[in-house]
Design goal:
Number of strands: 9
Structural class: alpha/beta
Order of helices and strands: EHEHEHEHEHHHEHHEEHEH
Largest sheet: 5 strands, parallel
CATH class of the largest domain: Alpha Beta
Strand content: 15-25%
Strand order of the largest sheet: 2-1-3-4-5
Radius of gyration: 23 Å
Number of helices: 11
CATH topology of the largest domain: Rossmann fold
Length: 320
């Protein structure tokens, strides 16, 4: 057995392999590159891997075919495989990927923070299993299998949470917000109801970071997220969609006045001085609002309209 955990990166594009290597600058982990499915199979025959990052679309043998062959070999049948693809697969392709042995998907361009977080989970699991295998006796094999199954279930939940949540604030991220907005639009259209989105930017946040440092900035964002979470009412959905930008989705506001009232409620919640930064920090909230069907009938149109409204309010000094 190899004592140093290794990650196999499979992609026919050398640029993508270089990008993955740069993102996974982890100590104590060996990164192995393969430029094709056939080369990946040769690598798997030579050694064990803690994780395989597999490109889906490759000439000759694609990622699904390669993963299926890897799974057929007993030694590598349980090696975790994360598919890396430029396009979100449809439900049929996604099921095909999971049937081939995938534990998750990553979409290009890959977010380095999410990538490292997922890889570290599997590296730690690999190290844990290596120690267990060295110390375990044949009598403990069945108990170990039960433990592994429960661990994998917890890991699946952790990975799903990481994919849908901002690591710093704990709020749902932009991906989750856009999914919720899409769901709200789908539910609203048959009955003619409206859906609104309020984007909130912390004006003055960069000054806090410049003055008090990044740790204070992180503390401020965490406190702001907690306030936003507390200000959300009923079915309203709060999210962190960028570093210092939040969103509040209103699935069925009564009217325009209800949207304005929700925005004012959020602005008021975020306006109080921030004390978690150490020295008292003051920022104010800029907002941009958009509602369907007036400002758009799909996610992209509504988000764009809200961004434009936010930009206009920012130019006017965040007085709106």
């Amino acid at each position: 057995m190899d004592t140093l955990p290794a990650i196999l990166m499979v992609d026919d594009n050398p640029v993508n392999l270089f990008a993955l290597k740069a993102a996974l600058d982890l100590s104590g982990v060996e990164l192995v590159r393969a430029g094709s499915g056939a080369e990946a199979l040769r690598q798997v025959l030579q050694r064990d891997f803690a994780l395989i990052l597999m490109d889906v679309n490759m000439p000759g043998m694609d990622g699904f075919e390669t993963a299926t062959l890897i799974r057929q070999r007993q030694r590598s049948s349980r090696t975790p495989i994360i598919f890396v693809t430029a396009h979100a697969p449809d439900s049929v392709k996604q099921l095909e990927g999971y049937a081939a042995g995938a534990v998750d998907y990553l979409f290009k361009p890959v977010d380095p923070t999410i990538l490292r977080s997922k890889v570290q989970v599997f590296v730690e699991l690999y190290r844990h299993n290596e120690l267990k295998l060295k110390a375990a006796a044949m009598e403990a094999a069945n108990r170990q299998l039960e433990h592994d199954l429960s661990t994998q279930a917890r890991l699946a939940e952790q990975l799903a949470h990481l994919t849908q949540h901002d690591l710093l604030t704990g709020l749902p991220n932009r991906v989750a917000a856009e999914q919720r907005l899409s769901q709200a639009l789908g539910a609203a259209q048959p009955g003619g109801q409206g859906v609104a989105v309020v984007l909130i930017e912390l004006d003055g946040f960069s000054s806090v970071v410049d003055t008090l440092g990044h740790a204070a900035g992180d503390a401020l964002l965490q406190e702001a997220a907690a306030r936003l979470r507390g200000a959300a009412q009923g079915q309203e959905f709060a999210a962190c969609v960028a570093h210092s930008e939040f969103a509040l989705i209103l699935p069925d506001p009564a009217d325009g006045a209800a949207v304005v009232s929700a925005a004012r409620r959020v602005v008021d919640a975020l306006a109080a001085p921030y004390t978690a930064t150490g020295p008292v920090a003051l920022v104010k909230a800029c907002v941009g609002m958009a509602a369907s069907p007036v400002d758009g009938r799909d996610v992209a149109s509504l988000m764009k309209a809200a961004e434009e409204a936010l930009a206009q309010n920012r130019r006017e000094g965040c007085n709106g």
